[in-house]
Structure formats: structure tokens, C-alpha cells
Write a structure and sequence with these properties.
Length: 212
């Protein structure tokens, strides 16, 4: 769809989404919203988003992503949201989750997780919010305690997109005992979903964004 653009790189992104929207979003978005509970991740649909290059859009090219600019990425999400809001969320959150790995992960983590996240093979989650840490995100009560080369993490997150289905998450917490009670200090730890003790729950009867 032709819209006001601040840069010439935006219109090709809108055109790409328009083509995808006609073919892949329009025929299914109402049905996806009205599936019976439990409304889990629509895997086939997610794979189509990945195959179109949307999931890896902003991830670096050297790790299998599209290497697109922040403006192109924002345009992608805006345009997908015009077609269907849950589709924009399905596309944005994996990229949000991979962002800390791109910027702060080590080379092994980048090679292991980014290409498979970009291709849709692995589903990432961004685990920040807690019952008492929403807008006030610094009020984390999840605590990681060093245990030899590992951490033992205790805590409960909620509203985490794909928390029930993810393959790994970037989990925000405090490192005890040093960071306990210090608002400024929040750490992020990569957690594989098959780590013993990791448990996800599917949120039922959501008010909206049911396909995401
Ligand atoms: C569809 C969806 C997907 C999400 N996915 C994720 C995810 O993948 N990962 C993740 O970590 N989180 C996720 N979240 C959680 C989201 O980040 C939180 O909902 C958000 O941070 C707000 O926190 P809260 O819901 O606890 O609301 P609260 O922080 O309790 O806010 C409730 C209301 O109070 C207002 N308010 C809060 N503080 C103040 C203040 N000091 N002064 C005045 N007003 C105030 C807010 O504006 C809001 O209207 C998701 C949420 C939604 C809705």
C-alpha cells in the first residue's frame, strides 16, 4: 500500500508485506483469531513468516538474517499491523528476544541461536515481565544464584509471548546476592527451555492478540 514514507527504503518493504498479506494473511487471520482454546502458536503460519524473511528481517546477514535497518524493520511491523495486529507481534517479539544476543551474546551463542531463530527453526522468547515488574521493569524479583559455572534461577514471569512454546528465552533477573535490592542492576541470562525446572503455561481466553 502506498503511504507517506520518510525514506525511499520503506516503500519496497510495504510492497513486500502487501504481497504477503493478500496471499497469506487475508485468507486466515479471522480463523486464527477464532480457534478453540488452547490457542497455541500457529506453527505453520509462523513458518511462513520466517520463510518470507520477516522473522529474521533485522537480524545480521552474517547470521542468516536480513540485515535490514531499524527504519525498514519498523516499517515491516507497522505494515504487518495494518493487516493483522497479532501477525505484527508474532514477527516483532522474536526479533526483540534476539536483540540482546546480537549485541551482548558471545560468538558461540550468536552462531548457535541467531540463524535458527531467523529461519523459524527455534522460537525465542523475551522474559522480562513479572507480576510486580511490568511498567516498573526494574522491580525484578527473579533471582539467579551462582552455582559453580552455572546459575540456579528462581522466579516466575508472566505475559511472556511464547513462554509456553519457546525453545529458549532471554531472561531478565537479578544476580544474587550482589544485585538484590539494587534497582539499577538487572542482568539477562539465556535459558534453554529444556533446562530442568523450566515450566511454561499457555494463557487461556485472552482478550485479543489471540494468534500471537
Ligand atoms: C500482548 C502482550 C504481549 C506481551 N509480551 C510480553 C513478552 O513477550 N515479554 C515480556 O516480558 N512482557 C510481555 N508483555 C508484558 C508487557 O511488557 C507488560 O504488560 C507491560 O510492561 C505493562 O505491565 P503490566 O501489564 O504489569 O501493567 P502495569 O505496569 O501494572 O500498568 C497498569 C496500568 O498502570 C499504569 N501505570 C503504571 N505505572 C504507573 C505510574 N507510575 N504512574 C501512572 N500510571 C502508571 C500503566 O500505564 C497502565 O495503564 C506483553 C503484554 C501484552 C499485552
Amino acid at each position: 500500500m502506498q503511504r507517506y514514507n520518510v525514506h525511499e527504503s520503506q516503500q519496497p518493504v510495504r510492497d513486500l508485506v502487501a504481497e504477503f498479506g493478500e496471499k497469506e494473511i487475508k485468507p486466515v487471520f479471522i480463523d486464527l483469531d477464532r480457534r478453540p482454546e488452547p490457542q497455541v502458536l500457529p506453527k505453520e503460519y509462523y513458518r511462513k513468516l520466517a520463510k518470507a524473511g520477516f522473522i529474521g528481517f533485522s537480524m545480521p546477514k552474517e547470521y542468516g538474517g536480513g540485515g535490514r535497518s531499524a527504519l525498514e524493520y519498523a516499517t515491516l511491523i507497522e505494515e504487518l499491523a495494518w493487516w493483522d495486529a497479532p501477525t505484527s507481534l508474532l514477527t516483532a517479539v522474536p526479533q526483540l528476544a534476539v536483540y540482546p544476543i546480537i549485541h551482548f551474546g558471545n560468538e558461540d551463542q550468536k552462531k548457535k541461536y541467531i540463524p535458527k531463530a531467523a529461519s523459524g527453526e527455534l522460537l525465542p522468547a523475551f522474559a522480562l515481565t513479572e507480576e510486580n515488574a511490568g511498567s516498573d521493569a526494574a522491580n525484578q524479583s527473579t533471582m539467579a544464584l551462582p552455582d559453580g559455572p552455572n546459575f540456579v534461577i528462581n522466579g516466575k514471569k508472566h505475559f511472556i509471548m511464547h513462554g509456553d512454546y519457546c525453545d529458549f528465552c532471554v531472561l531478565f533477573c537479578k544476580i544474587g546476592p550482589e544485585e538484590e535490592g539494587k534497582r539499577a542492576k538487572i542482568s539477562a541470562i539465556m535459558v534453554d527451555a529444556n533446562t530442568p525446572g523450566f515450566k511454561g503455561e499457555t494463557l487461556l481466553y485472552k482478550m485479543g492478540m489471540r494468534a500471537a
